[in-house]
Design goal:
Blueprint: E1 2-10, H1 15-26, E2 31-35, E3 38-41, E4 52-61, H2 65-78, E5 93-99, E6 104-105, E7 110-111, H3 120-129, H4 145-148, E8 154-157, H5 161-164, H6 174-193, H7 202-226, H8 254-269, H9 273-300, H10 304-310
Helix pairs in contact: 6-9, 7-8, 8-9
Length: about 325
């Protein structure tokens, strides 16, 4: 894998949201190693426009520089980037600054970025995110800072790292996992607590057995197919992909749906009203968590939307 540096900029619309989106999307291009703090700077040239938010991301990737640049342009396009006005305002601007020690000078791609050494809003966050970074000729980038010190630049601080950097607890959706286990534990407490009894006899209990077995089977098949790509977090793993076959051909989230089915089935078998209510709440939570996960998958794997359109059921095959 090769270490690359990408500059991020936005001065149109929800600037911070655009940068967050870009960082999450770049996690699908390799492994994000570090993210600089945020910087704000006035635009250079072009028509009158708002100030930019800037940052730099350092990642390791197996994509060659030309393909990496194309992937960055696709991310820009997903946020509505239009290349109509030279030096115009931009929802999202992603520049490939460095690609290891590689030098590329072609019509499609130029690395290092030709204006890297001229811009403080690029050099300063780059050195922050990658302190030992050097140009391909061995020049330390940090040594260029005195030459651009006169350029105005406002540091907004490293306040966003734990929020957006893939791998952090919050960035991976850690609190969703906490709530998930709290709800499952609450169902167990509700079942053990007794309380109001659901009306019904053998049919109700038999329905509970069937739902429980179906849920266990569905979740088991989902786990087996995921293998070492299984994670409790709604953030896809680095190097992962979209599974289309097996149980995933009829339901997009068989594990979440299977757990919900199993909890509802056990509650029906025990005729527990408390357990059933809490199980339905857990099912609604899994629906929301699955939706969040799908948004992340669609950002990282553009073809996921085709899979989602062709596989209607989110949690339970042919039902919901």
């Amino acid at each position: 894998m090769t270490r690359a540096a990408v500059a991020l900029g936005s001065n149109l619309g929800e600037r911070l949201d655009h940068l967050r989106f870009a960082i999450e999307a770049m996690a699908g291009l390799g492994k994000v190693l570090s993210v600089s703090g945020l910087y704000e700077t006035a635009p250079i040239g072009g028509p009158e426009q708002d100030d930019y938010l800037n940052a730099v991301v350092v990642l390791e990737t197996t994509l060659p520089p030309e393909q990496l640049l194309l992937a960055l342009h696709e991310i820009e396009a997903q946020r509505g980037r239009e290349r109509t006005v030279h030096w115009g305002a931009r929802t999202l601007d992603l520049d490939l600054l460095l690609y290891g020690s590689t030098v590329v000078d072609s019509e499609a791609c130029t690395v290092p970025h030709p204006r890297l050494v001229e811009r403080r809003f690029v050099i300063e966050p780059l050195v922050e995110a990658w302190p030992e970074v050097q140009l391909p000729d061995g020049t330390p980038v940090a040594g260029l800072l005195p030459e651009v010190a006169g350029q105005e630049l406002t540091s907004l601080g490293p306040f966003w790292e734990n929020d957006v950097l893939p791998g952090g607890f919050h960035g991976k959706g850690g609190w969703w996992v906490v709530v998930q286990f709290v709800l499952i534990a609450a169902v167990g407490v509700g079942l053990a607590a007794g309380g109001p009894v659901l009306p019904g006899g053998t049919v109700l209990r038999g329905t509970g057995v069937v739902l429980s077995l179906l849920g266990i089977a569905q979740a088991y098949l989902g786990v087996i197919q995921l293998g070492d790509r299984l994670t409790p977090f709604p953030e896809p793993l680095d190097g992962g992909g979209v599974i289309h076959g097996g149980v995933y051909s009829i339901v997009r989230h068989p594990i979440y749906g299977g757990i919900a089915e199993g909890l509802i089935g056990i509650s029906l078998f025990q005729k527990s009203a408390f357990g059933l209510v809490l199980s339905l709440v857990a099912g609604a939570f899994f629906w929301l968590k699955a939706g969040r996960e799908e948004n992340r998958l669609a950002r990282r794997f553009p073809h996921y939307n085709d899979y989602r359109a062709g596989t209607r059921a989110r949690l339970i095959p042919w039902v919901v």
